[in-house]
Amino acid sequence: MSDLSAIVKAYDIRGVVGEQLNEDLVTDFGAAFALLIKPDSPSVVIGHDMRESSPGLADAFARGVTSQGLDVVMIGLASTDELYFASGRLNMPGAMFTASHNPARYNGIKLCRAGAAPVGQESGLAEIRDTVEQGVPEFAGQPGTVTERDMLADYAQYLRTLVDLRGIRPLKVVVDAGNGMAGHTVPAVLGQGLPIEIVQLYFELDGSFPNHEANPLDPANLVDLQAKVREVGADVGLAFDGDADRCFVVDGDGQPVSPSAVAALVAVRELAKEPGATIIHNLITSKAVPEIVSEHGGNPVRTRVGHSFIKEKMAETGAIFGGEHSAHYYFRDFWRADTGMLAAMHVLAALGEQDRPLSELARRFNRYAASGELNSTVEDQVARQLAVKDAFADRSGVSIDELDGLTVDLGERGWFNLRASNTEPLLRLNVEGPDDASVKALTDEVLSIVRG
């Protein structure tokens, strides 16, 4: 088997269907996954998104799993967080077929152990890749069985036990599903017996993404949602990515609410339930997040970017919640897995439990100006980072750490983080400061070094 490092990424397997990924290869991945988890579990749960290639690939993976004597539970169409729910509720390792927000020609596999514990490069993915590259050994015993089970109603019911929306004031909510899996899950979770009027945008499941990319991190993909919120006079707008594990929020004026503000809002609500608890935030979230957590008696803990680091730190510290700048939100009560739906429910609850508009509610969680993530294509990432470090190292009042890339704190002038991409020749820059002018000045200074 040829080198698979191009498609076995840091956190998942992902590639172009027909070129890098096909059913025969996915069958091998299924068998290799079965060998990895066989000592701990006799069964695997499998779900898939709405991409045209997903059902066939999910079936191929199931063939690989059963070829090694393990049983399979197929839950069919699912969001990624619904698959995590199934893994937690059924206490089975899981496989989710999705390429999230990637274009239609891509697909991929997100894997987890029982209880939705992550499988990344250092926790099994590299071993799976090696097994497939070297050739999966034959199994002489009886093949496993395949059964089907619909988990959507159980998933919706469980989320409703975590955030009770029955008593909130009536809300009009525009949801842009981006033709992704939120079109499947939102009606089940938010659409029955709640004082919520859902205005649907692009709920038709369509893996060709005919309206826009299912990537709300790109402002261009929020335009339709923002316009619809203003048009219908909605209280809030929600945009989900393709596999519906991330959720972005816009207020009643159509203005985006930063993921850091959402993380702070959810953290405050979780701390009200469990005073003094630990909250995880990655190092690119706004400084407002740890400040607000501390002000509400919580214990903020900073981590590297990436779900495996967040989940690992949550397990280590017993944290009740974790938030990332990319709109991934993790909950201890959801097996430490990320669920955009549960974060959205917290926002709806916070909004519906009082009379102020979301713009006013969010203002208390927004303290600083930010650049957003700025990418630069560079040939020598290490040399460029070192040049930036040298430029700031000797300045008074500046602190530097290298927990994840290069983080430079200039005190009242602001801070920035410069990180290399795991998969592309890019440096990613995030800058935060007291105001827009400070952010622009610092951004321009760093980029002048990075881009030469």
TrEMBL record:
Residues 8-133, 154-254, 262-368 form the Alpha-D-phosphohexomutase alpha/beta/alpha domain. Residues 373-447 form the Alpha-D-phosphohexomutase C-terminal domain. It comes from the Bacteria. GO terms for biological process: carbohydrate metabolic process. Its EC number is 5.4.2.8. The keyword Metal-binding applies. It holds the Pfam family PGM_PMM_IV. Its cofactor is Mg(2+). Signal peptide: none annotated. Keywords: Isomerase, Magnesium, Metal-binding, Phosphoprotein. It is an enzyme of class 5 (isomerase). GO terms for molecular function: metal ion binding; phosphomannomutase activity. Belongs to the phosphohexose mutase family. This is Phosphomannomutase.
